[in-house]
Amino acid sequence: MINETYKAMLGGKSVIRELSEYATARGMEIGYENVFDFSLGNPSVPCHPDFTKALVRMLENEDPVAIHGYSPSLGITSVRRTVAESLRRRFGIEYSTEHIFMTSGAAGAIAHAVRSVTKPGDEVITFAPYFPEYNEYINKTGAVLKVTPANTADFQINFDAFEEMLSEKTAAVLINSPNNPSGIVYSADTLKKMADILSDRQKKYGHDIFLISDEPYREILFDGAEAPYPSAFYDNSLSCYSFSKSLSIPGERIGYIAVNPKCRDADILAVIFGQISRGIGHNCPPSSIQLAVAEVIDKTSDLSVYERNMNLIYDKLKELGFEVVRPGGTFYIFPKALEEDAIAFCNKAKNYDLILVPSDNFGVKGYFRMAYCIDTEKVVRSLDVLEKFVKTEYKAKQ
C-alpha cells in the first residue's frame, strides 16, 4: 500500500512551485519576456567564474577516480578543513575539521540538524514569516513545528509570543537570517536577547535547547551591512549553510553544517550526522563539487544586482502606497497587500501577468512575496505594470 501521508501531500503542493509552473505555461503563450515572474527564488546571476575554472581544471587534469568517487561519509576531509578555516577567519570561532559536515545544500543540513537534536514529540520553534518547507522538514521527522506569530512592525522576533511558546517540550529553535520571505536581517540585539532567553530556559528545564540557524542568504546583504553570525551569540548552535546563493550554484546542491565548538557533544555531532545519513540516504554530496567550492571558499558571485533590483522595487512600492519593511538582504521583499485577502490580491495581479506569492503559507496573512532575482531590465519594465495593476484595481475604489 502507498504511504498515505505522502499521498495526501499531493493535494498540498508548494504554492511557489505552482505559480512558477503557471508563469512558465503563460510564457509559452505570450512570450516569457512578457510575464513578470516574481515567484521562485532561483539565483539569476552567473556562478563565480573561478568556480567554473576550478571544476574544468579538475575534470581535465585530476584523477577521475578521485574526483568522481564517493566522498567520506562526513565529507572530504580537506574540504571540511577549508570550511572550518574560513569560518574561523571570518567569525572568530574556533571551528576545526571535526565540527564540519558536508551536505546536499541547506535543506540537507537542516534534515541532519533536526534529527540530531530531537526525538518524536519534541517541539521546534520558528518565527513567522518563515519558509513553508519547514513544515515538511520538521514534521516529517516526528518532531512538531511551532510557529511564533510575526512582529510585522519590523519582522524582528516577537519575543512576548516566543517566551509564551517555549516549554519543556522545546528541543530546538530554527531561525533564518537573512530571512526568506521578508528579507530582514536579525540584529545583534535580537540575537543576543534570543540567546539570553534560551540560556535561561535551558537552566529552567534542565535540558539543552539547540539553535538551528538556516543561513543560505548570508552573503546577500545591502547598504554595506554585515549579518551578525548567530553562532557567535549562543553556544548550542548548528549553522546550516548552502553555497547555492553565494556562488549561484543551486543545482549543485552543496552546503554544510558547522557545529559550534562550544556546543554540547561538539566533538561527536558530525559523526552523528554521518549515522543519520545511513537512515535517510542523504549522504555523500558530489565529490567534484565539494572540491571546487573549497577552491573559492571566500568568494561570491557578483550579487550587486539584487540590491539594485530591491531599490527599484522598494521605491516603487512606497510610491504606490504599499506598507513595506525595507529588506536588509536576500532577494525577497514582503509588502502588505492592498486588501486583507492576499490570495485574492495575487490572483488579480495574475491578470496583469504579475506573478506574486501570497503570504498565507509563510505564516502571515495579508502580505505577498516578490522574488526579484530576475534581470534588472525586466524589473524596470515590471514597474509600469505594477502601477497599472494598483491604479486599475485599487486606486479607483479608494
CA-to-CA gap between the ends? 56 Å
Cα Rg: 21 Å
* CATH homologous superfamily (4th level) name of the largest domain: Type I PLP-dependent aspartate aminotransferase-like (Major domain)
What string, H for helix and E for strand, traces the elements in order? HHEHHHEHEHEHEHEEEHHHEHEEEH
Summing up helix and strand content along with how strands pair, one would put the structural category as alpha/beta
Instruction: Report the count of strand segments.
Output: 12
User: What would the average pLDDT be, to the nearest integer?
Assistant: 95
The DSSP helix count reads 14
What are the low-pLDDT stretches, counting only 5+ consecutive residues below 50? none
Walkthrough of the structure:
The chain is an alpha/beta fold and 398 residues long. Strands 2-8-7-6-5-3-4 form a 7-stranded mixed β-sheet, with helices on both faces. The chain has 2 domains: 4-47 and 302-397, Aspartate Aminotransferase, domain 1 (Alpha-Beta Complex); 51-295, Aspartate Aminotransferase, domain 2, CATH 3.40.640.10. Helix 5 packs parallel to helix 11 (287-295), helix 6 (105-117) packs across helix 10 (269-280) and helix 12 packs parallel to helix 14. Helix content is 41%, strand content 12%. The chain contains 14 helices and 12 strands.
Could you give a short description of this structure?
This protein has 14 helices and 12 strands.
